Amino acid sequence: MISVKSEREIALLKQAGHIVALCLEALKEHVKPGVTTYELDQICEKIILENGGVPSCKGYEGYPCTICASVNEVVVHGIPSKKQKLKEGDIVTVDLVAGFKGYHGDSAYTYKVGKVSPDKEKLLDVTEKALYEGLSKVREGVHLGDVSAAIGAYINQYGYGIIDQYTGHGIGREMHEDPVIFNFGTPGTGPVLKEGMVLAIEPMVSLGTKDVRILKDGWTAAMKDGKPSAHFEHTVVVRKDGYEILTTL
Ligand code: MF3
Ligand code: CO
Q: Are residues 144 and 184 in contact, defined by beta-carbon separation less than 8 angstroms?
């Protein structure tokens, strides 16, 4: 069942989303060669707490940190570490969820560390544009499959891998709610969207094949072929004639 949120709930989701956006914005100046993923985690945790939020990921199914920091071939759920220093040419995805008065906002952004190779530049560009291709379909009355298909078709033009073991999701009082949102699909299929539904849409794309393996820590999801991967995500509310991004400044 996909829940429809009231305007009161949407206002709280927007406050949660705003806190997430503050974190991702602040990281723009901190992501550079030499910084550790642990430092990025601490920066985000501080911003969340200062703004009256809670780091929703910390303790979720035993996850130890505030953010997920996924470097190069790691696509999602990389665990921040004091030992992991970013270096010139890396890409790092920071994915984080903040709670505010019981409601959650979820967003991810893949940053460049200094100057990166042209193929990584292209991967980031295609992944971010795929998110907006999907969002451009969102409004009351469309099928969820229209959104998924738009994301998938855009990525397929470039022959990149579309990760299928992880998906977008509904969000609200829970971090993960119905529906499951695939990053590929068939137009005209799936549930029909209604105003007030809140969705976290998150294409995950790799320069190689789509296959992922989980590392020994039980969380880190890395591309099997070791190729770079990227991930962009926003939490949005469905409106009568479009969508509104909740994870924004
Ligand atoms: N945005 C991530 C997701 O939807 C959040 C993961 S938090 C974790 O999967 F605790 F599960 F790592
Ligand atoms: Co998410």
A: no
